[in-house]
Structures are given as structure tokens and as C-alpha cells.
Amino acid sequence: MSSPDGTRPRAPAAEPPCMVPGCGALSERSLALAEARKVFPALPEGRRAHLCRAHYKEWKKGTKKERELQRLGW
Predict the structure, then answer these.
(1) Rounded to whole angstroms, how far apart are CA atoms 66 and 2?
(2) Residues linked to residue 32 through DSSP beta bridges, in sequence order
(3) Please, which residues have CB within 8 angstroms of residue 47's CB and are 6 or more apart in sequence?
(4) Which of 34, 29, 5, 32 is nearest to 16 (CA)?
(5) What's the Rg (C-alpha) of the chain?
(6) What's the rounded Cα separation, in Å, for the pair 2 and 18?
(7) Which residues are CB-contacts of 52 (< 8 A; sequence separation ≥ 6)?
(8) Structural domain boundaries in the chain
(9) Which of 28, 31, 39, 73 is the Cys-Cys partner for 62 at CB 3.0 to 4.6 Å?
(10) 3-class DSSP assignment, residue 8
(11) 13-63, pLDDT tens digit by residue?
């Protein structure tokens, strides 16, 4: 069955696992790989970094000052 715009509806994708080595939890957030590598330099190649809740929180804490300065710039 097609949607009104003529494209096929996408099946809900299963959440990929967290990309941090040694973690196998389900990911809750994804962000640009370059951003994630600021805190987790050992991430594998790709475009997006899928992070579980705990590692996303760690990334937020690790980049907090940088993100604050970026917001103040404009």
C-alpha cells in the first residue's frame, strides 16, 4: 500500500546497538560521528554515531563547555 505522496511507507527500523567499543546497549540517540569522536575517539567508521543513554550523557558532559561557547558566538 502506498502513502498519499506515492512512496512506500518505511518499516520501523530496529534500534542499532551503541557504537562505543565494549557497550552493547540499544542506542537512544545518534549524532554526527565527528562530534562523538571529541569524547570517544575509538569509534568505528561511519557517518552517524549511535549512542546509548549513558554514553550520550557522557558526551554531553564532555562537550558542555564547547557547546556553551558555540551558542554564545551568535
Answers:
(1) 45
(2) 48
(3) 32, 33
(4) 29
(5) 16
(6) 33
(7) 18, 20, 23, 25, 26, 27, 28
(8) 29-72
(9) 39
(10) coil
(11) 788 999 999 999 999 999 999 999 999 999 999 999 999 999 999 999 999
